[in-house]
Amino acid sequence: MAQPTQRLDPAKFIGALLDAVEEERIEEVRETEQLLKASTPAQIQKAGLGLISLKVGAVRTGLGGKCLADLEPATPGVDQLPPHKLRPGDIVALDAYAASDKTKTVADSSNGSKLATSGVVYRVADSKITIVLDDAVPDEMVEKCRITRLANEITYNRLKDTLRDLEKVIEKNPERHIQVLMSQAPAGFSKPPAKLKLFNPDLNPSQVDAIKLCLSAQDVALIHGPPGTGKTQTVAELIRQLTARGERVLVCGPSNISVDNIVERLAKLKLQMLRLGHPARVLPSVLAHSLDVRVRTCDEGQLVTDIIKEMDTKLASVTKTRNRQERRAIYQDVRELRKEMRVREKKVVQNLINGAKVVLTTLNGAGSNKLRGQAFDTVIIDECAQALEPECWIALLKGKKAVLAGDHLQLPPTVKSKRTNHPLHRTLFERAHKLLGPSAVRLLTVQYRMNQLIMAYPSTALYDGKLEAHASVRDHVLPDLPHVESTEDTQHVAVLYDTAGADMHESAGDTSTSVLNADSKCNEGEADLVAAYVRRLCAAGLAADEIAVITPYNAQVGLLKDRLHSEFPALEIGSVDGMQGREKEAVVLSLVRSNDQREIGFLGDERRLNVAMTRARRHLCVVCDSETVSVSPFCKGLVEYLSEHGELRYPGYE
């Protein structure tokens, strides 16, 4: 048995989490109010928290009869949205937008938001963003509109309700996994199967060992999956093993992408499952298992589908008429059809959920009314180290056993409070990892992504040197790809551009956004250097979609897109946060910070750099000012490692 290293007082612990959640809610509401009162729509867009000059494109009916509206750039000749931070699940205000609004604050330009309607981001693409509305798009907003991200009070209320439910459960007779995670009991394990019949025979010994641990767990087990070690593949095999022995499984992740990754993996295994919520990925293999599609394609749902088609036909006719009276009449017809559809759809949805042996959703989605009263044998939380602990309990209260999979040495969830020892700064995965100790945790040790030169530093600095590169990737380099030439750039696995002393100082980006308290940093010199380097990689034959340009700062993302996007539309340029769980053949990393005060902000968080550099498969290029960034021990170690084992270059002296 895995004995807890220390006992906690559940009542005090949950009370502290409740206070922390309320503190986060207040801070988010405060930020939103400040945003609306003091910022123009253009400033909000610059900060990535909204989009302006949009128009309504296609409109259709979604689950529950809700309106799905595609918002596209309204400016002639513009077919791409600017850089932004909007993600599926974000709550946004949709409002009319006029050119005269540019110099007004959001509160003034929306007339106190009286005309605004709220929606939820459904899907994000480069050229459009789709939002879910309870009703049709108001007339005033069809031809020109804007959206602004709002505080998500619904999520905070759900977190607090969950913690109160947890309090009540603990007072009674909680399931064993709840007692274990609250340090009231040790984790128990039965004898693991001596020989396991695998559905996937290609799993390595550390993956098989992790699966055996989880199958023998009586309450809680952890899978620690460093970058590239096949954690999702391991979780997929575990799900198949659990269902094969008759268990009903709830699989959750903190984001839509994290859930979709598992759906995609399970789809290849032909496993029957049901995906609740809004898939972020538009792959047919993912969408085919979504509740929305299943409702429309199952036999029971045929009548629902017919009603939806009629609604969509009417909604499509709205964009063809400018007569407001005709529009209102159409909307009234749609409302009547929606009422009928909701009644019929509710029964179909419940039957599908009741019959599903594997249900997948986000942690927040696990609190949906659709899952009320549903019980599961095992709850699996993937990317658990990216989730706030209260989010995890939404799912955990629905099961008898728990499997937590993640890596607390990669990016944690975003917490607005900077208070020291804030309860939300520590995730459930990190807490359970320390609480239960090695006997309840299995580390995946073989990675299938990185050349060993790229892997070696994070392995030594963060994972006690336990990672090993699989033979298939150990020595792979860019020129091994048939379409890539060997050049002075591509022949190297790791390149460090040290800009110290090169007068490439950072700047605060667009100071017009300073009122938002969302100032970002940028570095013109680094952006020029990165752009030139990317051009050389592409000239050597590397495809733009095989490269990722990563930087910690949104302002630098904007600079780099200005320099490279029109030339290389398929090139992915983004923040560290947006790349977790992803990989590319080559990664070019711009660290931005260069100042005489040697201030590095959140670059001091080693987890951020761990994610950034471990996205690379065959080639990593880091651009930084070694004097500034070396104030961080992890950054200093990285600079020293790349200087010794990689190709060290200085701008202008190559």
UniProtKB/TrEMBL annotation:
Q: What is its EC number?
A: 3.6.4.12
Where in or outside the cell?
Cytoplasm; Nucleus
Catalysed reaction equations from the record:
ATP + H2O = ADP + phosphate + H(+)
List, alphabetically, the InterPro entries matched: AAA+_ATPase, Coronavir_polyprotein_1ab, DNA2/NAM7-like_C, DNA2/NAM7_AAA_11, Helicase_ATP-bd, P-loop_NTPase, SF1_C_Upf1, SMUBP-2/Hcs1-like
- Taxonomically, the superkingdom here is Eukaryota
Question: Which enzyme class?
Answer: hydrolase
Q: Which residues form the Helicase ATP-binding domain?
A: 199-453
Q: Which GO terms describe its molecular function?
A: 5'-3' DNA helicase activity; ATP binding; DNA binding; hydrolase activity; RNA binding
Q: Where is the AAA+ ATPase domain?
A: 217-483
Q: Is Flavoprotein set as a keyword in this record?
A: no
Which Gene Ontology cellular-component terms appear in the entry?
cytoplasm; nucleus
The alphabetized UniProt keywords are: ATP-binding, Cytoplasm, Helicase, Hydrolase, Nucleotide-binding, Nucleus
Q: Which SUPFAM superfamilies match?
A: P-loop containing nucleoside triphosphate hydrolases (SSF52540)
> What family is reported?
Belongs to the DNA2/NAM7 helicase family.
State the protein's name: DNA helicase
